[in-house]
């Protein structure tokens, strides 16, 4: 009795294990083929390996908006005055695109910081600007190890998808060493950043468009057109009419 029960249970367990692993494999490959279908936590774990393989090569975006061009390094749109580099969860940058900190953007940022300090805001001279593809890879991987992929995706860009890789994005730090979130300073940035050619890139109410939670501290250098964009109340995606939102997988 004991033996036969054990044998039965063992056989049942083996059968279940074989079935479930077959189903998993079939399910995940189907989802990868049809990337539009929603992914379960299991399949998104499976996908992470694929993403690693993908991001080490040049990005290929399937649905490129008519207004968007690609030069092998980055996607861009034609602004009113300048070419506007775009980097979001739909439009990645090439891993080899490594422009460093944009000098014009940096000098405007230093002016903005000095003016905020002069007006009494607790802003540090320190800021977080350019990040190479490789440094973003390390940063993102640390977050994934620490909090898991799903959580990491909520606050950190995957390598190739960070606007910091453009050399045109800067995170402001306060005098305690934290990202700037204080209400007065945040409002000042919304009202005044355009005067230095910047926009507050990730704003409240625009999460579906930008793909990010609000970040009062993250400034994106645009140049002259920052005023029009800022006045419009639109996200960068809405203003130029290009696709944003979350990762497709
Ligand atoms: Zn940032």
From TrEMBL:
<keyword id="KW-0645">Protease</keyword>
<dbReference type="InterPro" id="IPR003709">
    <property type="entry name" value="VanY-like_core_dom"/>
</dbReference>
<dbReference type="GO" id="GO:0004180">
    <property type="term" value="F:carboxypeptidase activity"/>
</dbReference>
<feature type="signal peptide">
    <location>
        <begin position="1"/>
        <end position="17"/>
    </location>
</feature>
<keyword id="KW-0732">Signal</keyword>
<keyword id="KW-0121">Carboxypeptidase</keyword>
<keyword id="KW-0378">Hydrolase</keyword>
<dbReference type="InterPro" id="IPR009045">
    <property type="entry name" value="Zn_M74/Hedgehog-like"/>
</dbReference>
<feature type="compositionally biased region" description="Low complexity">
    <location>
        <begin position="25"/>
        <end position="46"/>
    </location>
</feature>
<dbReference type="Pfam" id="PF02557">
    <property type="entry name" value="VanY"/>
</dbReference>
<feature type="domain" description="D-alanyl-D-alanine carboxypeptidase-like core">
    <location>
        <begin position="103"/>
        <end position="224"/>
    </location>
</feature>
<dbReference type="InterPro" id="IPR052179">
    <property type="entry name" value="DD-CPase-like"/>
</dbReference>
<dbReference type="InterPro" id="IPR058193">
    <property type="entry name" value="VanY/YodJ_core_dom"/>
</dbReference>
<protein>
    <submittedName>
        <fullName>D-alanyl-D-alanine carboxypeptidase</fullName>
    </submittedName>
</protein>
<feature type="region of interest" description="Disordered">
    <location>
        <begin position="20"/>
        <end position="65"/>
    </location>
</feature>
């Amino acid at each position: 009795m004991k033996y036969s029960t054990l044998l039965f249970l063992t056989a049942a367990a083996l059968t279940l294990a074989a079935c479930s692993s077959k189903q998993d494999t079939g399910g995940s490959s189907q989802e990868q083929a049809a990337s539009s279908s929603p992914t379960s936590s299991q399949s998104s774990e499976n996908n992470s390996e694929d993403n690693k393989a993908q991001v080490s090569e040049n990005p290929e975006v399937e649905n490129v908006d008519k207004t968007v061009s690609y030069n092998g390094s980055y996607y861009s749109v034609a602004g009113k005055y300048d070419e506007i580099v775009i980097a979001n969860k739909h439009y990645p940058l090439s891993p080899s695109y490594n422009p460093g900190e944009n000098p014009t953007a940096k000098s405007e940022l230093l002016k903005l910081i000095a003016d905020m300090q002069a007006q009494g805001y607790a802003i540090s001279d320190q800021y977080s600007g350019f990040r190479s593809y490789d440094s973003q890879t390390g940063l993102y991987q640390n977050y994934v190890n620490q909090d898991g992929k799903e959580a990491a995706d909520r606050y950190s860009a995957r390598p190739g998808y960070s606007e910091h890789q453009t050399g045109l994005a800067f995170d402001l730090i306060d005098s305690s060493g934290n990202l700037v979130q204080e209400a007065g300073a945040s409002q000042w940035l919304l009202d005044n950043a355009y005067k230095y050619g910047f926009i507050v890139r990730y704003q409240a109410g625009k999460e579906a468009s930008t793909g990010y939670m609000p970040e009062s501290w993250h400034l994106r250098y645009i140049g002259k057109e920052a005023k029009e964009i800022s006045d419009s109340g639109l996200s960068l995606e809405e203003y130029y009419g290009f696709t944003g939102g979350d990762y497709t997988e």
